[in-house]
């Protein structure tokens, strides 16, 4: 078979995502466009993206347990999170930049604007990053974050969650989201998770307990797969350029 | 719907980057020193080809107040209009000293952001057309559920802008103006000012790409 010519990325299914204006999440009210987005036919600008090199990464970049440890280990539940990044057609997404950030075991962020009474951990930073491998696989190690309170309604609490960001093969795939943990009862009351319109898509953000991959006397494990938009192949006219 | 015999995956749904997006994406701005190599807003090195420019501005909410926790990324071609990406099919060699991508956060006090980069060359459009020089820009923040995509064009490229297929696809001609950055010179430096209005009367055009 001749070499495959790539066409455009499949259209983003807006019903699979939160709308911009979601009044239950109050900050969105003044930070959402009034006008409809303008959909464009993709060009080289939208189907290209930067490449990151392995040598830009340090050995502990994906180890949040050790990458900010100074005089000891951070306090909290030791967990490993792993999974695959694929496109919507099932193809592995290779060498994608996956970045993560989170609160510590107390639900406190290492950020100048976080004043929550939950205590900072001197041995925990809360950020990590990695590249997916040839199979789209990624793995990182961390402390399970605690839930934390925030001012939306006055007694609002986020479920435990880890933020993540992906830069892959095309600018059109750029994605930031959050993963949650199986069984957390706060999941059902979170106004941020409720911005996602369908139950099936909300479930797609919940990492599952992966018991057979627990490491005895050391760490538990969660499995979380990520799906990005995929490109169609072109077998007839190629209008991209 | 009940008789589907193939499955396709659904894209993972977006969620807001939240107010502490800097911890993961700009740890130095959160005073976290963890990585030996940090991504930033400097796209040029001594070896990068092309005209140096600074791109700067603020992002405003629906009340006209600067968004001081916004995170911005840009993606652009090199001085010859070639993307440093395997997916660029022009068959021309991209500038080896140019990543084409950068990331910054607005200042926590003033809301100003900037990038030091080069002015991109024109890039092919669809079906043999030519796009005016432009920079793709995405913003993420607390209150923004899905990253907002826009494009930055240049006011000293009026002729190219008039023929740009994407600008011309915006039916409301008046709204095209919101995508044009204004050139100024400051201490021998070329600066383009690009303010973004998320909501309201002079709302910036955002794209579904």
Task: Please give a structural write-up.
The complex is a heterodimer of chains A (241) and B (209). By secondary structure, chain A is mainly beta. Chain A has a single domain (5-234), classed as Protocatechuate 3,4-Dioxygenase, subunit A, CATH 2.60.130. Chain A contains two helices and 14 strands. In chain A, the strands form three sheets. In chain A, strands 3, 4, 5, 6, 9, 10, 11, 12 and 13 form a nine-stranded mixed beta sheet that branches. In chain A, a hairpin with a 5-residue loop joins β7 and β8 (156-158). Chain B is mainly β. Chain B has a single domain (21-197), classed as Protocatechuate 3,4-Dioxygenase, subunit A. In chain B, the strands form three sheets. Chain B has an eight-stranded mixed beta sheet with strand order 4-3-8-9-10-11-1-5. A two-stranded parallel ribbon of chain B has the order 2-12. The relative contact order of chain B is 0.20. The mean pLDDT of chain B is 97. Classes of the chains: A mainly beta (241), B mainly beta (209). Chains A and B meet through β2, α1, β4, β5 and β9 of A and α1, β6, β8 and β13 of B. β2 (38-39) of chain A pairs parallel with β13 (207-208) of chain B, so a sheet runs across the interface.
Structure summarized in a few sentences:
Chain A: Pfam families: Dioxygenase_C, PCDO_beta_N. With 241 residues, chain A is mostly beta strands.
Number of domains of chain A: 1
Q: Largest chain-chain contact?
A: A-B, 90 and 81 residues
Mean pLDDT of chain A: 97
Extended strand count of chain A: 14
Query: What global shape of chain A is seen?
Result: globular
Protein name (chain A): Protocatechuate 3,4-dioxygenase beta subunit
Pfam family, one (chain A): PCDO_beta_N
Family (chain A): Belongs to the intradiol ring-cleavage dioxygenase family.
Organism (chain A): Advenella incenata
């Amino acid at each position: 078979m001749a070499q495959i010519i790539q066409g455009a990325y499949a259209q983003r299914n807006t019903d699979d995502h939160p709308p911009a204006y979601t009044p239950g999440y109050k900050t969105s009210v003044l930070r959402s466009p009034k006008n409809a987005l303008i959909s464009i036919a993709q060009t080289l600008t939208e189907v290209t993206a930067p490449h990151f090199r392995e040598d830009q990464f340090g050995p502990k970049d994906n180890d949040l347990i050790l990458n900010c440890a100074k005089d000891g280990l951070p306090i909290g539940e030791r967990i490993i999170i792993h999974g695959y990044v694929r496109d919507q057609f099932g193809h592995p997404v290779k060498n994608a930049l996956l970045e993560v950030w989170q609160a510590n075991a107390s639900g406190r962020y290492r950020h100048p604007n976080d004043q929550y009474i939950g205590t900072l951990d001197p041995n925990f930073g809360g950020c990590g990053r990695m590249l997916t491998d040839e199979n789209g696989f990624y793995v990182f190690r961390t402390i399970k974050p605690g839930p934390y309170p925030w001012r939306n309604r006055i007694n609002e609490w986020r479920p435990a969650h880890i933020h993540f960001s992906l830069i892959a093969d095309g600018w059109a795939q750029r994605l930031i989201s959050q993963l949650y943990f199986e069984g957390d009862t706060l999941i059902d009351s979170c106004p941020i998770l409720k911005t996602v319109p369908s139950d099936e898509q909300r479930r797609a953000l919940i990492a599952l307990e992966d018991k057979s991959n627990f490491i005895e006397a050391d760490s538990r494990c969660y499995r979380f797969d990520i799906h990005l938009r995929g490109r169609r192949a072109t077998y007839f006219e190629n209008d991209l350029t | 719907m009940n008789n589907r015999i193939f499955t396709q995956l659904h894209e993972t749904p977006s969620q807001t980057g939240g107010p502490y997006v800097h911890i993961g994406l700009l740890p130095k701005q959160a005073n976290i020193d963890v990585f030996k190599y940090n991504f930033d807003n400097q796209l040029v090195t001594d070896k990068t080809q092309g005209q140096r420019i600074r791109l700067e501005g603020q992002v405003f909410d629906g009340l006209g107040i600067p968004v001081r926790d916004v995170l911005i990324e840009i993606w652009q071609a090199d001085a010859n209009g070639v993307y440093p990406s395997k997916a660029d099919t022009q068959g021309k060699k991209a500038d080896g000293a140019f990543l084409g991508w950068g990331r910054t956060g607005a200042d926590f006090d003033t809301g100003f952001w900037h990038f030091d980069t080069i002015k991109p060359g024109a890039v092919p459009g669809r079906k043999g057309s030519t796009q005016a020089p432009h920079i793709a820009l995405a913003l993420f923040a607390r209150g923004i559920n899905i990253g907002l995509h826009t494009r930055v064009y240049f006011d000293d490229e009026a002729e190219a802008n008039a023929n740009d297929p994407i600008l011309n696809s915006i039916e409301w001609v008046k709204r095209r103006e919101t995508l044009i950055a204004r050139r100024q010179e400051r201490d021998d430096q070329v600066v383009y000012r690009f303010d973004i209005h998320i909501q309201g009367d002079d709302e910036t055009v955002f794209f579904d790409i």
